[in-house]
Amino acid sequence: MSDSDAVDFDEMDLELLRCVESDFDVSLDVLSDKLGLSKSAIHYRLNKLKDNGVIRGVTADLDPLSFGLDMVAITELTVRHEEGYSEDIGTALAAVDGVEQVYYTMGNVDFVAIFRVQDRAQMNDVIDEMVGIDGVNETSSRFVMDEIQPEAKVMPSVSESVEESLLSD
């Protein structure tokens, strides 16, 4: 979202976002009691936040371990720098089955890809597919031994000064 697409937030919007970020499946009744708003007001606010792209989607948070996807690797990739390479290669990396996240970075590597598979054969397939992407020069992988996984949250990372600027716009 660019500055020209800024959303007008109020304190209740921010509190509602804190609540649904920690549990989007929470009922309107619970939110109504907690926030002191009617269910229709909460429903309206949630729809407004969805329409404005603040809430990007509602998804199920599946446990990958339930499917035997317990091998995680972090692969750094260096690539050939040509016009449009970051978008082309980044899109190709994100399309590889098993890849969960792709980051275009600055520094000694161009991309970092995090992927999850069931076994070594799948791991080799993913790395082979990455290496086969036009423009990929080199990869270096690290294999995760244990996951210490905090829940990805946005609202706790919003500083007081950013929150104040959101409320004053």
List the helices and strands and how they pair.
Elements: H1 11-22, H2 28-35, H3 39-51, E1 71-79, H4 85-94, E2 99-104, E3 111-117, H5 120-131, E4 136-143, H6 160-168
Account of the 3D structure:
- The longest helix is centred in the N-terminal third of the chain and has 13 residues, at 39-51.
- The mean pLDDT is 89.
- β2 and β3 (111-117) form a beta hairpin.
- Strands 2-3-1-4 form a four-stranded antiparallel beta sheet, covered by helices on one side.
- It is elongated, with a radius of gyration of 20 Å.
- The chain has six helices and four strands; from the N terminus they run αααβαββαβα.
- With 169 residues, the protein is an alpha+beta fold.
- Helix content is 38%, strand content 18%.
- It folds into two domains: 7-60, Arc Repressor Mutant, subunit A, CATH 1.10.10; 64-143, 2-Layer Sandwich (Alpha-Beta Plaits), CATH 3.30.70.
